[in-house]
Design brief:
The longest helix has 18 residues. Helix 2 packs parallel to helix 4. The chain is an alpha+beta fold and about 375 residues long. It starts with 7 loop residues before the first strand and ends with a helix. A 6-stranded mixed sheet has the order 6-7-8-3-9-10, with helices on both faces. Strands 13-12-11-14-20 form a 5-stranded antiparallel sheet. Strands 15-19-16-17-18 form a 5-stranded antiparallel sheet, with no helix packed on it. It has 9 helices and 20 strands. About 25% of the residues lie in helices and about 35% in strands. It binds adenosine-5'-triphosphate and magnesium ion (MG). Adenosine-5'-triphosphate binds next to strand 2 and helix 1. Adenosine-5'-triphosphate (ATP) binds next to strand 2 and helix 1.
């Protein structure tokens, strides 16, 4: 991924369908060679944004730039931004070989070069031996891989993929997404990838743009999105999260003390935008807690959080606990379960204080 000028820029892009705003003043900058994911719930405008970039639809307002040039009003074939559609749109009357080689044949490439490039794609996507099959003779997952191969074989600098792995089973999905990421890095192409799968977004992306109802709610690295979400929507949409209502009671250099139901908690925080008496939400991921059994003859310190395990589920590599603390049920993951079973009864709960994120008024208002 190179720094410098953005390669693709959406500048204040708005798209309406009748009275409905599918995209509302969307701005996003994408560096050359980046793997960027548009992540958001169904209907938030992900496909619409890709269609505008690839030229299948025009914005009502705003401008789109590729490599410094406005592409508004350019037809799709002059944009160099091939789109692999959500429903993959293979040519039904063409074989797998003919589908993948279609773009190269149009360009007039020599047969032996076409054969070589198609063979590379078949190898890459585990499709060897299926060259003569028609799309209806392929499984959904195979068709999806053909659709990606058909776009990738063109060796454009940009590839737009709209939920390209949705028809693969879980294991194949992980394999193909890792392969895709490696291919993207090797070729240095810029990929914009649409998904509503948060694991996929976190594991593949250089940059994630989280969308909701036609707006980008936050664009950032997977780390920023996961640990430092800008608002409650992003916090809640990406991963599992505990949101705890608290009030600021004091701020000092680098630390902040908050009150949660009469209990004081101290965190490291550059508290520039927080003032005493202000309501905040503490955002804590399940893996940022740890729990310890309380034995009958030990009374916990007043500074410790204590609670009661109400339920747990054993998931092999971790145990997910539901622990009642101050009349709230916290979700707590223990990533190193012991051989003897789960912890039950009364427990002490500790927080990895560096990983607590505090959402102040501004973020709550815009949630
Ligand atoms: N041609 C159209 N006419 C009217 N409304 C449309 C049209 N295309 C999209 N929409 C609406 O715009 C909104 C955004 O649609 P879009 O296809 O971009 O969503 P999406 O984020 O890709 O969702 P999904 O994850 O379900 O694919 C939706 O509410 C959709 O119904
Ligand atoms: Mg879509």
């Amino acid at each position: 991924m190179q720094s410098g000028n953005p390669y693709i820029t959406f500048s204040h892009v708005t798209k309406t369908f009748g009275a409905f705003k599918a995209l509302d003043d969307v701005s996003l900058q994408i560096p050359r060679g980046a793997f960027v994911t548009l992540l958001g719930p169904s209907g938030c405008g992900k496909t619409t944004l890709l269609r505008l970039l690839s030229g299948f639809s025009e914005p009502d307002a705003g401008e789109i730039f590729v490599d410094g040039h406005s592409v508004n009003n350019l037809p799709p074939y002059r944009r160099g931004t091939p789109l692999v559609f959500q429903d993959y749109a293979l040519f039904p009357h063409m074989t797998l070989y003919e589908n993948i080689s279609y773009g190269l044949r149009i360009k007039g490439m020599r047969k032996q070069d076409i054969d070589r490039r198609v063979a590379e794609m078949l190898e890459l996507f585990n499709l060897r031996g299926m060259e003569l099959r028609f799309p209806k003779q392929l499984s959904g997952g195979q068709q999806q891989r053909v659709a990606i191969a058909r776009a990738l074989v063109l060796e454009k600098e940009v590839l737009l993929l709209d939920e390209p792995l949705s028809n693969l089973d879980a294991k194949l999905r992980v394999d193909v997404r890792n392969e895709l990421r490696q291919i993207q890095k090797k070729l240095g192409i810029t990929v914009i990838y649409v998904t509503h799968d948060q694991d996929e977004a976190l594991s593949m992306s250089d940059l994630i743009a989280v969308m909701q109802a036609g707006k980008i709610r936050q664009a950032g690295t997977p780390w920023q999105i996961y640990f430092r979400p800008d608002n409650r929507f992003v916090a809640d949409f990406v991963g599992t999260v505990n949101l705890i209502d608290a009030v600021v009671v004091s701020t000092e250099k680098g630390t902040i003390t908050v009150d949660w139901n009469g209990q004081k908690l101290i965190f490291h925080h550059a508290a520039a935008d927080l003032r005493i008496g202000q309501a905040v939400e503490l955002m804590v991921r399940p893996e940022c807690f740890s729990i310890h059994p309380i034995h009958e003859n030990v009374s916990p310190d007043s500074e410790d959080l204590t609670g009661e395990v109400t339920f747990f589920s054993f998931l092999g590599r971790f145990i997910r606990y539901f622990v009642r603390v101050h009349e709230k049920t916290l979700i707590i993951d223990d990533s190193n379960p012991g051989l003897d079973g789960a912890i039950e009864g009364r427990v002490k709960v500790s927080i990895d204080r560096d990983k607590v994120h505090i959402l102040g008024e501004k973020e709550l208002r815009t949630s």
